[in-house]
Design goal:
Layout: H1 2-11, H2 15-22, H3 26-34, H4 41-51, H5 56-59, H6 65-70
Helix pairs in contact: 1-4, 2-3
Length: 71
Amino acid sequence: SYRFKDARVQSGISQKDAAEQLQVSAATVNNWESGRRLPTIDALEKMADLYGVSTDLFLYTSPSPRDAHES
């Protein structure tokens, strides 16, 4: 959940703007970022596109399986 907020902040998008672009309420974005609720796969894909990151950032714990192959 902290990854959602970190990605949003790094992209320079406010929570309100993210909510508008993701077509959800600001409360929903807040719930995702605080870990109270989980986004759908569709919402994860939209967030990744909006924030300019890979869905892997949200789906894998660190280190990701892809990171292990890059060593």
